[in-house]
Amino acid sequence: MAHDTTMNTNPYTFKTLLGDYPNTLAIKSGQVHNNSIAFDFVHAPVANRLFKRVVRDLEFDLAELALVTAFQAKAYKKPLTMVPAVVGAGRYQHHCLVYNQERGKLGVSQLRGKRIGIRAHAQTTVTWVRGILMNEYGVDLRDVHWITFEHGHLAEFPDPKGVVRAKPEQNMVQMLMNGELDAAIIGTDLPDDPRLQSVIPDPHEAAKAWGERHKLVPINHMMMVKKSIIKHHSDSVQQAYQLLRQSKAVADSQKSPNSSPSKDLTPFGIEANQAALELLLKYSTQQGLIPKAYSMKELFDGLQWAA
After folding, report:
1. What contacts 213, CB < 8 A, 6 or more positions away?
2. pTM of the predicted model, to two decimals?
3. What is the extent of the structural domain holding 140?
4. Cβ(111)–Cβ(143) under 8 Å?
5. Which of 27, 110, 302, 303 is most exposed by smallest CB count within 10 Å?
6. 224-246: per-residue pLDDT in tens?
């Protein structure tokens, strides 16, 4: 990575999109800081509502972004580069495909011809779940009727033929309860409702076995930086990355010493994230979301980042 080409006594300021998570609290509060750089944080406790502005308007210098959107940004040659800093904890996804048990049991083998609601066709959680259904359970994704509720983040990638858009006034959870949908893929906003049951049986045990076999926990969001800033302010970019690492370290240090050891859900560095990225790239390619499975060198534009 080239060094900064100019000397400046004022801190370089990144216009930054970053959600509120345990591993970002220290950097957003200023607990960890560097006098050479500063962050102009846009208020966005839930960052995904602003992802369109990252890839359509190129509004941010440094931004959190969903991984499938980042892959598509690469495909459509957006002037952005991925930074291997996971923000927001990774999680297993098997439990996210749910049905309303009041309307009868629904198993994986019964999905043919069923109506499944998804927030967006290229959503990262949806991509993980569809990949698991296809590769682990033999579901032909073409046999399912997919209903979306939002436009994708990339304007260049509309919903493909056969995918139906719900009406603006319709709500995915309410449609599921009413029987207008047979199932839905719901991520972090999954309601705590006993009527909603996992289509995949014993999802947490299934996910644990799947994760051990693949040696990974699914991740959803990483950071992106503008290529022009890497070119002209590379040292500042590396300093920002180090502050993100320090913020993660603060969060890790605050975990209870009595808690049992667990997998790192916010891994940093290319090697630590490679298995999850390669599998999600495979799933994304299978589902026609990107034209090819990029190598790590292509994905990170050949840049080196500390683990």
Report:
1. none
2. 0.94
3. 94-214
4. yes
5. 302
6. 999 999 999 999 999 999 999 99
